[in-house]
Amino acid sequence: xxxxxxxxxxxxxxxLLPEEQVLxxxxxxKIETKFQLYGxxxxxxxxxxxxxxxxxxxxxxxxxxxxxxxxxEHSHEQALRFDLTVPLxxxxxxxxxxxxxxxxxxxxxxxxxxxxxQKGRYRExxxxxxxxxxxxxxxxxxxxEIPAVIHQVFRSxxxxxxxxxxxxxxxxxxxxxxxxxxxxxxxxxxxxKLAKIGEEAVAEMLAALGVSENSIKEIFEFIKPQxxxxxxxxxxxxxxxxxxxxxxxxxxxxxxxxxxxxxEFEVPRENIVLDLSITRxxxxxxxxxxxxFLRNYExxxxxxxxxxxxxxxxxxxKEHLPGVGISIGLTRLFYQLTQAEIIKPQxxxxxxxxxxxxxxEDVSYSIKVVNELRRNNLHSLVYMEDGKxxxxxxxxxxxxxxYAIMIGGNERAExxxxxxxxxxxxxxxxxxxxxxxxxx
Amino acid sequence: xxxxxxxxxxxxxxxLLPEEQVLxxxxxxKIETKFQLYGxxxxxxxxxxxxxxxxxxxxxxxxxxxxxxxxxEHSHEQALRFDLTVPLxxxxxxxxxxxxxxxxxxxxxxxxxxxxxQKGRYRExxxxxxxxxxxxxxxxxxxxEIPAVIHQVFRSxxxxxxxxxxxxxxxxxxxxxxxxxxxxxxxxxxxxKLAKIGEEAVAEMLAALGVSENSIKEIFEFIKPQxxxxxxxxxxxxxxxxxxxxxxxxxxxxxxxxxxxxxEFEVPRENIVLDLSITRxxxxxxxxxxxxFLRNYExxxxxxxxxxxxxxxxxxxKEHLPGVGISIGLTRLFYQLTQAEIIKPQxxxxxxxxxxxxxxEDVSYSIKVVNELRRNNLHSLVYMEDGKxxxxxxxxxxxxxxYAIMIGGNERAExxxxxxxxxxxxxxxxxxxxxxxxxx
Lengths: 440, 440
What we know:
- Two copies of one chain form a homodimer.
- Chain A is of the alpha+beta class.
- Chain A contains 16 helices and 16 strands.
- The two termini of chain A are 52 Å apart.
- At the A-B interface, helix 1, strand 1, strand 2, strand 3 and helix 4 of A face helix 1, strand 1, strand 2, strand 3 and helix 4 of B.
C-alpha cells in the first residue's frame, strides 16, 4: 500500500462545506439573475492570459502578486488573471467589430492574487463585474444605471440595503486646479485613505505633496460630510461661483445628473450619499466613482466599488472606448457575512425529500416515488444503502432534508407513502400526488 | 501615447462571442439544474492544488501536461487541476467527518491540460461531474441512477437522446481469468482501442501480451455486438455455465442488475446498449463502466463517460471510500455541437425588449418603462445614447432584441408605448401593462 498524503489545500484559498456552498451559490445566482435582467451579456474568458496582455499597463504591485504559469522555455509567458477588467479590455479590443456598442457585459469568475496571507483576504476569489463600454462616446445615464443594478442585487440577497457613496473625479480635479494643487493623482490617493488613517495623517501626506496649509484646510472643509445631499449640492453651487473653474463645473453637473437619474432608476434617495471624500485610489477612473456600504453593517467597509473610465483599452486598440463599471468581491463579502453571522446555511433549503425504503423489497417502489417527485421538480433522492432505520433517518437529518418519505409493506399495499415532516416532527400517510400538492 | 499591443489569447483556449456565450451558459445551466434535481450537492474547490496532491498517484502522462504555478522558491509546489476527481478525492478525505455518506456531489468547473494543440481539443475546458461516494460500502443501485441523471440532462438540452453503452469490469476480468489472460489491465486498454484502431491492430496488441490465438478469437467473439440486450444476457448466462468463474458470475449479475434498475429509473430500454467492448482505459475503474453516445450523432464519439471505482481516496485516507461517477466534457461537446451546426445561437432569446427614446426629452419616461419591464422579470434595457433613429434600431437588431419599444412625444402624451415586433415587423401602440400581458 502506498503512503498516505495528508489532504490539504494551499493557504489563502476558500473551500466550503456542502451546506455553505449551497448558500454561496444561491447568492451568486441571485447576482447573476439581476445582471441578466438588466440586459448585461455573459462573458467567460480564459483564466490564463499572456503576460504581455496582463502587464500592458506596466507591472507595479500587481506584477509581484501574479500567479505565473511555468510551461517551459518556448511557450508564451502566461499567468492567471488578477482581475476581470484587463481581460475585458483585451476582449473588447480584439472583437471590436463583432460587438455592438454600448457593449454591456457581466462576468462572474475567479481571479488570482498572491496577496500577503491574512484573515478574510483570499488569493483566489470571485469577482462579479458589470461594465458598459461605448465606442467613442457613452452617455452619462449609464453611470446612474450601474448602482441601480447593484441596489436590486442586494435587495434580492435580502441581507441589507446597499447605500451608495457617489463622487466625481472631475469635480475633485477641478477643486485641485482651483486650489493650485499640482500633484492631483497623488492627492487623490491621499484623500482615499481618509477613512483608514484619519485626517491628521492625510494632512501630512498632502503637505508632503506641497499643498499649502490653507489649501489643506479648505480641502477638508470641502470634502467633509454634509447634512444632506441637497445641502451638499447647494454648497457645490456656491463653490462654482467662488472657484469659477470649468472642470469643476462639469464635475458638479455630472454628479447632479447621476444623482437625479439614479432616483429615476429607483434607487431610493436615502440610499444615495453624495460623498466628496470618495476618490477610488486607482488611476484609471475619470468621472463618476462609487463605493457601496451595507446599511447597519457599515463596519464591513465598501462591498462594491467602481466608476467611469475614459478609455478602457488604450493599450490594445486605437479606438476610443469609454466605459463605466462596478465590481463585487463576492468571496470576501461571503466571508464577512458568514463570520458576522449575518447569513448562515438553512436546513431544509436544498433537499425537499428523501425516500427511505425500509427493506430491499421496497426499493423498486421507492424509485417509482422519487421519479414522480423529480418529475415535479422536487430536489429528491432515494437512500439506497442497507442499514438500520435509525441510520437512514440520521442521514436524512444530516443532509437537512425537509421531508423523509418512508416506504414499507403497508405503503406498497395501499399505494401510498408515509411522510415525516423533519422540521415539525409530524407524520402522515398519503398518496404521492397529495404530497406534491401539499408541498407546492 | 504607449505602444499598442495586439490583443489575443493563448492558443487552445475557447472564447465565445456574447450570443454564443448565452447558448453555452444555457446548456451549462440545464446540466446544473438536473444535477440539483437529483439531489447532488454543489462543490467548488480551488483551481490550484498542491502538486503532492495532484501527483499522489504518480505523474505519468498527466504530469507532463500539467500547468505548474511559479510562485518563487519558498512556496509549496502548486499547479492547476487537470480533472475534478483528484480534488474530490482530496476533499472527501480531508472532510470525511464533516460529510454525510453517501456523499453526492456535482462539480461544474474548468480544468487545465497542456495537450498537443489540435482542433476541438482545449487546454482549458469545463467538466461537469457527478459522483456518489460511500463510506465502506455503496449500493450498486447508485450505478443505475447515474445514467438516469445524464439521460435527463440530454433530454433537457433537447439536442438528441443519450444512448448508454454499459459494461462491467469484473465481468471482463472474469473472462480474462477464464481464458488465462494474465496482463488484464493491458488487455483492457487494448480492447478500449477497438473502435479507434480496428480488430486487427487490437489482435496484434493482445498477441504481444501473450494471449493465445484461440483466446483472442474467443475474446472477439465474446465482445462483439449482439442483436439485443436480451440475446446478450442469454449468451452471458451460457458463459457462466461454460467458464464457471466466480468473478465473471459477479460481473454478470451486476450488469444485469444495473440494466434492470436503469429502466426503473426511467432510462428507456432502447437507450441502453449492453456493450462488452466498453472497457474505459483508466485503471481506477473496477465495476460498472459507461460511455454515452448521442442518437443520430454517434460520429461525435462518446460525450460522457465514467464508472464505478473501489477506493476513491486511497492516497489521502485510510478510510475505504468506494464511489461511482460520470463526467461530461462540456467545452468539447459545445465545440462539436456548434461545428456540426446541431445547435446555434437564436436571435431574440436573451433580450426581451429594448426601449428607444426618440429624443433626450423621452429618456425619463423610457426609464419608467424599463423599470416596469424589469419589475416583471423581462430582460430589458434603455438605449441611452444620442443618435439617429436608424442607429438605434440597428443596435436593437444587432443585440437580437425581441421587441423594440419606441418612446416619443405621442407615447408620452397618451401614456403608452409603441411596440415593434422585431421578428415579424408588426408595430402597435399599447400600455406597458398590455405589453407585459402580451409577452407573458
